[in-house]
Amino acid sequence: MGLTATLCERIASLGYDDMPEAALAAARRLVLDGLAVGVAGVSEEDAIPIMARVVKELGGTPVATAIGCGFRTDPVRAAAINGAAMHVLDFEPMWSPATHALSVTLPVALALAEARGLSGREVLAALVKGLEIQGWLREASGQYTPDVLQFHPPGLVGPMGAVVVASHLMKLDPLRIANAFGIAGSRAGSLFGNVGTMTKSAHCGQAASMGLESALLAEAGFTGDTETFESPLGYANSFYKGTFKPDEMLHYGRAPWRLAEPGYAIKMFPSQFGTHFGITAGLELHKRVTDASAIKAVTLTGPVMPYVNRPFPETGLSGKFSLQYTMASALLDGKVGIHTFTEQKLHRPEMQSLLGKITLEMDKSIPARFETMHVHLHVELNDGTVLETTCNGPRGMWGQSAIADADHLVKVRDCLGTKLSAGAVEKVIGLGSRIDTLAPAQVGEMMGLVG
C-alpha cells in the first residue's frame, strides 16, 4: 500500500484501548484548556462576536453549541466559531514543531459529539488521533523555522487533523478517510500576512470546519485524491515540495506518542509563543526596576523572527505578536494577561515612552526554533546601572517540568470566569477533567454550560 492508504488503515483501526494512558492523560488536560480559552476568547475579543453574528444570520440546523455565543448551529459552523474562539487569544498550548493543534480538533470532536449523541470516551479518542496526525505531519514537513515556512502551520495540518477526528467519530472506512484527506488537501493554507488581525483566529476555525466538512462529504460518497500524501500533485508535494519526509508519517499510531513525547507547552501568557521568552526575561528584571522612568535604554536580542518584530504595534491584538510590546508589558507591569492586549494598555503614555527606548537585535546565530532559541535582555538605567538576564525558555516548555495542575487550573478558572458563574466554572472543570467517563447527555450538559 501507498503512504495514504497505510495511514488510513491505521486511522480506521485505532481505538481508545490502543492508546497509552500518558497520551490520554495529556489529552484530558487539553479539553479543559480548550474550553477555557474558547470562553475567554468570545468575551475578550471582538472577532468572535462578529463571526457569531454572521453565522447566526446564515442559520444552520441547531445541533451544536457555539461556545459563549448563546446559540446552536450546524456542526461545520460550530467548529468554525469554536476553533476561532479557542485561538483568538493565542492562549492555547503550543506544539513541537510549532502549530496550534488543539483549536482545529477539539471543536470538531465536540460539535460531532453533540450532533450525533456520542460519548466523552469517543471524544477523547478522536482528539488524540487528530492531534497525533498533526504532530507527525509537522515533523514530516521539514519546515520548522520562519525562513522556510510559507503558510501558517494550522492552516496546513489543521484540516488533516480535523479529518482524522471526524473520521473516528463517524466511523469512516479507510477509503472514505482517504477521500476526505484528498478533499481537505484542496482546502488547506493560511497566510502569515494576516498575523495580528482577526483573520488569524479564523485560520484555526476554518481548518476545523473544512476538515469536518471534507469528512462529511466523503461519508456521503464525495471523492478526492486518495493518494494525496504521495501523489506528485497532491497535498504533500504541493505544500512541502523538496522537504517532505514520508517515513516520519509511518510513526503515526505507534510509539512515541507525540502527546507524551515531546508533548505540548501549556501557555501561561496569551500571546505568540516566541514572545514568552522576552516576557519571562522582562518579568525577571521587573523585580529590579522600581520606576519605569528610570530606564534609559533596552536591548532585546533573539533569533530572526521578522513577523514578531513590531516596534509600535497599532492595536492590542497585534501586540500579541510584538516581541517589543510583550516584553515591555512584563518589564513595566510585572504581569502579562488577557487585559494586557487592550488599546488602553497599549496607548498609555508610559508604554509608548518605553517602546521608544527598545532596540530589537535579531541574531542569525540564535536558532529560530522555539525548542532551542533563547533571548537576552539588557536594560540600562539613567544612573548607569545595567541589568541583564537570559531566558532559555518559559516555564512548562519542552524539556522542563510541566505546568502543575494547580497552576493550570488558575488559568482555566480565570478564563472560564470571564463569562461563567463560579458554580458553572466548577461544573465545567468537574466534567471536562473526566471527559472520557461522560455519557452523551453529560457531554451535552458540559457544552450547555459553556454555551
Overall description:
Helix content is 50%, strand content 8%. The protein has two domains: 3-268 and 402-450, Orthogonal Bundle (2-methylcitrate dehydratase PrpD), CATH 1.10.4100.10; 275-391, 2-methylcitrate dehydratase PrpD (60s Ribosomal Protein L30, Chain: A, 2-Layer Sandwich), CATH 3.30.1330. A four-stranded mixed beta sheet has the order 6-5-7-8, covered by helices on one side. Strands 1-2 form a two-stranded antiparallel sheet. The chain has a two-stranded antiparallel ribbon with strand order 3-4. The mean pLDDT is 97. By secondary structure, the protein is an alpha+beta fold. The chain has 19 helices and eight strands. The protein is globular and about 70 Å long.
